[in-house]
Structure formats: C-alpha cells, structure tokens
Amino acid sequence: MTDWVDVGSRTEIMRKRKMVVHVDETDIVLFTHEDRIYALADLCVHKQKRLSRGLLFKGKAICPGHQWAFDLESGWTDEWSVCQPTYRVRCEEDRVLLDPEARILAEKPAATG
Ligand code: FES
Q1: Domain count for the chain
Q2: Would residue 110 count as lying in a domain?
Q3: Can you give the residue ranges of the Rieske domain (predicted)?
Q4: How many angstroms is it from 47 CA to the middle of ligand 1?
Q5: Ligand 1 pocket mutation, candidates 63, 79, 80, 84, criterion most atoms within 8 A of CB
C-alpha cells in the first residue's frame, strides 16, 4: 500500500511553477506543466546537478549541468539511454500527494517528444 506524502498546496505549487520538497531524505523537484504537476528526483542522474536550477523547455526538464532534457512523465532523456527517477503525484482538492517510491522505467517510451 502506498504511503502518500502531502507535499503542499496545489494552488501554491501551480503559482510557483517549480518547487523542491524533501521527502524521506531525498530532494524532489515538482514542475508544473499544462495544468499538471510532475515530480522528479532533484539530483541529476548524470553528474548530480540540481534539476531545480534548470528550466522547463517544451515540457522537458533541462538540466543546468549539460542540458540533458528529461521527459517530465517518464524521466527519460531524448539524447541518452538514461532515466531520471520520477514520482507519482495526485491531488486531493487543494493538497498535492506524492508517492515516495521512486519509479525508474525500465524501457524508454516510444515517443518522449
Ligand atoms: S549533470 Fe545533468 S546533464 Fe550533466
């Protein structure tokens, strides 16, 4: 059974557009895109730069380290066979709940953009 963690107000997260939360010793960055909230591990799988210091471009999280572009939903990059851990997010009224179990998709989705 999933122990969902309350990570904040949806209104506030949507207003800030990007926010880092600390859950179970892990920094997780929340990005908003097209009225949805996505969660990825903040430390990049490549060289541990913080995705939260990067930006969103065409629905991808761009790492400030070497500009790898991570798909918000799957965590996969377009350029490399590497997957950034992601987390499931759901909303209950104005609360945002996060599943602290990291997901690493074993296979790259057919189309990440
Ligand atoms: S540290 Fe993120 S792409 Fe290199």
Answers
A1: 1
A2: no
A3: 4-98
A4: 5
A5: 63
